[in-house]
Amino acid sequence: MVLNSKTTWTIAVISDTHGLLRPEAIAALQGADYIIHAGDIGDAAILAKLAAIAPLTTVRGNVDREPWTRKIPASNVLEVGNISIYVLHNLNELDLNPKAAGFAAVISGHTHQPKQEWRDEVLYFNPGSAGPRRFKLPVAVGRLRIQEGKIVSEVIELKIRS
Q1: What's the structural domain count of the chain?
Q2: Is 162 part of a structural domain of the chain?
Q3: Where do the DSSP E strands lie in 25-107?
Q4: 100 dihedral zone (left: phi>0; alpha: psi -120 to 50; beta)
Q5: What is the pLDDT of residue 1?
Q6: Any idea what the CATH number is for the domain that residue 82 is in?
C-alpha cells in the first residue's frame, strides 16, 4: 500500500502479540496513520481490531501456522511518501540488501527485544513484544514518525496493569 497524500506520517509498529492484544497496546496505537504488525499474531481477531484503528500491513511469523495465516505474506513492503519500509518477522531471514534495494527501514519482530539501530543508512527497528511477557523483557510497541524524508523511531514500553 502507498500513503502519499500527506507530508508527515505516524506509523505504529507492533509485533509478537501471540494472541494477546492488550488494552495498553491499543491505547498506544491510537492516532497512527498506519499500523505494521511484524508477525506472530496468534489470533485473526487481532488483525480486525488493529485494522479498525488504522490501515494495516502485516507479515506472518513463525508461530502463525493456522489456516487463516496462509494468506498473510512472509514479507511485505509499505511505501510512505518517498520512504520504502521492508517488513519481515525474523531479521535473520532477511535475504536482500536493504540499502541497495532502496529501503529506508527494515521492521522485524521475533526476538521480543526492542531494538532500533542505524546500519548503512537503513533503520533496523524491532518494537519488541506486545503480547505475553517473555522472561524479564519489556512489553512494548513502537512508533515511526516520517517527515520530510526522514524517519525518527521510538520504542514505547507499555505500563501493564497488574
Answers
A1: 1
A2: no
A3: 34-37, 56-58, 75-80, 83-88, 105-107
A4: alpha
A5: 47
A6: 3.60.21.10
